[in-house]
Amino acid sequence: MGKMNVLSAISGNLRPNSNFRLSAETDGPIRDIPVPEELHLPLHGHVPAVARGRRVTEGTEIAEHPALQKGTLHAPAAGKVLQVTGTHITIKTDGESGPTPAADRPDIAQQEDSLQAYRKLGLDIGGLARSKILILNGLNPEPGISVCDQLLKDHLDTVERGFLLLQKLISPSETILAISQENHVCLAGARTQHIKPVYPGSLDPLLVKNILGRENLQNVRVVGVPQVYAFGRVSKNRRPVTETIMTIGRGNYRVKIGTPVRNILRHAEQPVNTGDRVILGGPFQGRAAYSLDQGVDKNTFGIFVVPQGSYPPVRDTNCLNCGECVLHCPARIMPNMIGRCVEFNLLEKTTQYGISACFECGLCGFYCPLRRPLLQYIRLAKQELAGQNKQLTPQLDMT
Question: Is the pTM of this model over 0.85?
Fold first, then answer.
């Protein structure tokens, strides 16, 4: 997708008369981004297990998360640890590559039925448990991102391997493959459900409602195709997760975790000028990069460049009481009131307006005529409340 088409996915061209299409054409197979001279691996709560000055080989365990649902972080390439902070680990790569050392890798050949064994190899297992229904989400997550279509087209064998493994781990009585109407792939043992490829229908809570007709169902698990692919890839090569697949422009790329945004955009020939904004993720749920030296994580599935002046940025201004955010909220909550509570530091009161039901689709800020930072307010409130040991989750409880 060229720059102007990318902009149409996040600017006025997607206003009310648009259909928020999730289908996107690609310009060839997945390509590899070269390993950079330095990797900046974001920790996101992981606790470093290496010190400055240590040499690591590819696949060495370098950080562990205190939550047993979060995958362990591994070195994407061989090199020397230059810096360890509370937010990231920097590795000076040396070009050496090799298999994961046995001392740093659990023997999953003997533990294939253990979710914890795969967690130790970098896979997030939060929400994965024995369930009655397993839904494989094959829709592209947001407009402009084509990762799911690409994986189902070019790496169906690896997706199928991951699917068979998840069936073994979760033991569902029924499995459903949700894909767009234009997609005709199938998986043996899964019922295919064609879904209209329109955002936000790709988000898990809405997908469940679309397929099963009800919300907040018990014993239903939704797993995205990128995660299914990751399970299949780890199961096949017995090496930890050290990369992500992401859409940039019209192409999809295989990128080492921690690769700086600057290196990725340069290789993909996506220029960035002074004043441009770079969005990591999708146009609705993505986050602005704070620096071009920022490294990507395993859940970054796209990068978008927004030229200066092409689309108004979010701004801190007073609410008009127009109600657009409420009218377009698929979770049926009140983003306008949540935003006001956050502005006045009345975080506890946000629970009265349904913040725990928000799955952060980003439509509230998209439709706000004043471009108030509603999604940012919601994320801030969730983070602060979680720090106070409040039970808030980023999407509807599907357990």
Answer: yes
